[in-house]
Amino acid sequence: MNLLERGAKIKTFEYMEKYFSDLRTRKKDLERNRVQLQAERQKLDCEFEAAFLADSGEKEIQDRMARVDFDISAIDKKIHILDHAEHGSAILTELAKAVVMEGRDIADGLKADATKQADKCISLRDDYIQALADLGKIHRAGAEISYKCGTASQYIPGAKQFIGIPDLWSTVKPDAGLCERKYNQKQF
Questions:
Q1: Is residue 106 within a helix (H) or strand (E), and if so which, with residue range?
Q2: pTM of the entire structure?
């Protein structure tokens, strides 16, 4: 895998995303259990009221209500822990440090590659500019020949003759918009 592909897929960042996904899944499961326990608690409230009015079985229902309340409280604590873990647990801190370290290593390699590529672009640009200068010289020489031949052809009886070469500037001039689009084009 080259540096460009590695930069797009920092492995430790994938672990961090998995960590967050796991936290969200666990929190959803706990919240679903909490809702079920709250429904059970409401049901027990109704049963307690009926038992109280009937003056029998209150104690058993109160014990079940206390267990449900304890379970709800335990779930609330776990949800609080998961919320905290999502914003600054020791595990998250270590994962974040690993992402930064891996990213820094990849960035260092990318900087070296970018410098090499920039040097290559500069060399190609310099060659391109020299080739443009050479093309300009050829065009100016052709224009001068065309002028001289055109001037001389005035003295030839009959038709005036045109001798020249086309100006190829429009076909070779740099397109800044194309260059910018290519530079910004997503490759992976």
A1: helix 90-153
A2: 0.60
